[in-house]
TrEMBL record:
<dbReference type="InterPro" id="IPR011037">
    <property type="entry name" value="Pyrv_Knase-like_insert_dom_sf"/>
</dbReference>
<dbReference type="GO" id="GO:0003824">
    <property type="term" value="F:catalytic activity"/>
</dbReference>
<protein>
    <submittedName>
        <fullName>MOSC domain-containing protein YiiM</fullName>
    </submittedName>
</protein>
<feature type="domain" description="MOSC">
    <location>
        <begin position="19"/>
        <end position="168"/>
    </location>
</feature>
<dbReference type="GO" id="GO:0030170">
    <property type="term" value="F:pyridoxal phosphate binding"/>
</dbReference>
<dbReference type="InterPro" id="IPR052716">
    <property type="entry name" value="MOSC_domain"/>
</dbReference>
<dbReference type="GO" id="GO:0030151">
    <property type="term" value="F:molybdenum ion binding"/>
</dbReference>
<dbReference type="InterPro" id="IPR005302">
    <property type="entry name" value="MoCF_Sase_C"/>
</dbReference>
<dbReference type="Pfam" id="PF03473">
    <property type="entry name" value="MOSC"/>
</dbReference>
Length: 180
C-alpha cells in the first residue's frame, strides 16, 4: 500500500489550524521541528492538564485528503492544515491501519502509527456542525473517529508535498486503532 503527501503544516503557537509549509522536518522521538506539539512528553493542553509526564504519542497528526471531499459533500469547506494536521495524505486508508504500522515518508522519515485522533469541540468552533461529520457511530453503535491518525517519529527527515508514502504493516495479530 502506498500514497502521497499532498500538504504539510506546522505551527509554533497553539491554534486550531496550522499554516501550510513548503516542507517540515521530522525529528526522531520528538515530532515536527518548530511545532507546538513536538516533544517527548505530551503537549496537547487537555492531556498536559491530566498528566504532563505522559509520553507524547501524538507527535505527528496525519489526515487523509479524502476526508475533505467527504465533508465537502455535506457543505463544509476544509483544506489541508485546517484541522491542525501536520501531514495531509492521499491514497492511503489511514483509519484502517493497525497500531504499529510504519509510514515511510519521502527519503528518510518514518512515522509509527499510535492511534486515532480524538476530535474535540474545537472542530465545531472552526465550522459549526463539522464535529458530527468527523465523529459518528456505525451500524452497531460503535464510535467512529474520522479526523485522522497520530504517530511518533521513528526516523527523522524532511517531508514535502509530493513525497511518496509507503506503508509497512506490523506483524500479526494486528491491533485496531483506538484514540490516543
Amino acid at each position: 500500500m502506498s500514497g502521497t503527501v499532498t500538504a504539510v503544516s506546522s505551527n509554533s503557537e497553539y491554534s486550531f489550524t496550522k499554516p501550510n509549509r513548503a516542507g517540515i522536518t521530522l525529528l526522531a522521538g520528538l515530532g515536527v521541528a518548530g511545532d507546538v506539539h513536538a516533544g517527548v512528553t505530551v503537549k496537547h493542553r487537555s492531556r498536559v492538564a491530566q498528566d504532563p509526564t505522559q509520553p507524547n504519542l501524538r507527535q505527528v497528526h496525519l489526515i487523509h485528503e479524502e476526508l475533505f471531499t467527504e465533508v465537502g459533500e455535506a457543505g463544509f469547506e476544509v483544506a489541508p492544515g485546517d484541522l491542525g494536521e501536520n501531514i495531509t495524505t492521499s491514497g492511503i486508508d489511514l483509519l484502517g491501519l493497525p497500531v504499529g504500522t510504519l509510514l515511510r515518508i519521502g527519503d528518510e522519515a518514518i512515522v509509527e502509527v499510535t492511534g486515532l485522533r480524538n476530535p474535540c469541540l474545537q472542530i465545531d468552533n472552526f465550522q459549526d456542525g463539522l464535529l458530527k461529520k468527523v465523529v459518528g457511530r456505525d451500524e452497531a453503535g460503535n464510535i467512529v473517529r474520522k479526523a485522522g491518525i497520530m504517530g511518533i517519529v521513528q526516523a527523522g527527515g524532511v517531508v514535502r508535498p509530493g513525497d511518496p508514502i509507503t506503508v509497512e504493516l506490523p506483524d500479526e495479530p494486528h491491533r485496531p486503532l483506538d484514540r490516543v
